[in-house]
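Before relying on records like the one below, remember that each one covers exactly one chain. Contacts with other chains, cofactors or solvent are not represented anywhere in the record.
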Amino acid sequence: MAADISSWSDFKSVLRQLEKPEAKDMYQTIIIDTVSIAWDQCEQFICRQNGVQKIGDIPWGGGYSACKKEFENSLRKITMLGYGVVLIAHNASRIEKTADGSEVEIIFPDLPKRAAEICNGIVDIIGYIGTEWENGEAKRWLYTRETPTLFAGSRFKYMAPKIPFGYDELVNAIADAIELSEKKDGVTVVDSANLVTTKEELNFQEVRSRAQELWTKLVGSGENSNPDVANAILKKIEMTMGRRMKLSEFTEDQVELLNLVVLDMEDMVK
């Protein structure tokens, strides 16, 4: 069941939907294809928030910091909601010289460094899907261990370095790795884990009142109002909601999104 994501605002909207019990009943795993496009959309989102064309135009490296925080928090939110996550990336390569002067091709995920660091910290397996020819037939493999020419890895100590590519094959390989950890290292294996999270309940009337208070403080009223600041706030609303709208148009079921706007306005006050 695919959802077309054309902007980071779309992505944030889907994240909000994933909080609902109905979504948790329908989905177990969220797949992002590709994660490099998601990073680009996140970067554009931060640029629009700050009214610049390039992330580097935000002073003192603030754009890169904001983009990294936004991207990491959003991906981690999916895991904290209890979903499995699959991040798909294309591969890139570079040529390096070895000690004897020969050249080798190094294969790695095609991701900016900041995005790669975030993704690597979240996932349990970094797998590369490759093809080998056997007796004139192509066979696809999933490589789960790093080699001198391939970037891959796994948190499972006894994971097979290469397995036939397929869902059942991957599940079985993980089960084998866990079983070996139990036998060789004496680890405790459980069938399930309870995820405990705490979440502050937002009161719509309080959030709306705070939004109106901040609007008056930032924009002013009557002849003393500041249209430039008002337009800046409306742009932040558009980036959050994906469309132009007023604070008064937020409904009670959009309280979390309205709260995001309130947080942006509080930053403007600071």
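The beta strands are 29-33, 84-88, 91-97, 103-109, 125-126, 128-134, 137-143, 153-154, 162-164.
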